[in-house]
Amino acid sequence: MPRPKFQTLTEQMFYVLLCxxxxxxxxxxxxxxxxxxxGRVHVGSGTLYNLLEQFLQMEFIRxxxxxxxxxxxxxxxxxxxxxQKEYERICAQAQDYRAVFAxxxxx
Length: 107
Hints:
There is one protein chain. This protein is of the alpha+beta class. It has one domain (11-106): Orthogonal Bundle (Arc Repressor Mutant, subunit A). Helix content is 59%, strand content 14%. It contains four helices and three strands, in the order H-E-H-H-E-E-H. It has helices at residues 11-19, 26-36, 45-57, 77-106; strands at 24-25, 61-67, 70-75. Helix 1 (11-19) packs across helix 2 and helix 2 (26-36) packs across helix 3. The chain starts with 10 loop residues before the first helix and ends with a helix.
């Protein structure tokens, strides 16, 4: 059985949403994600614009401006909630990891 869409986020999804804490256009996001992650995460333009469309449909983001073909977006409260839940999930995973390896070090 497939998991519900957006139950968990990929790294690209997480960082795109994280960028949209402030108004930003697609080109800004393409630049910001690698800068934010010291080059560890990259988002291709096709992936980005597909994600933006999906996030708009799910109301995780909203369009805040249109200047010709350039569009700007921002996180909604629903998107902030999704991002917070993903952050909590990642923190729980890190805590579980530390607990397992702390046991091994103590033995």
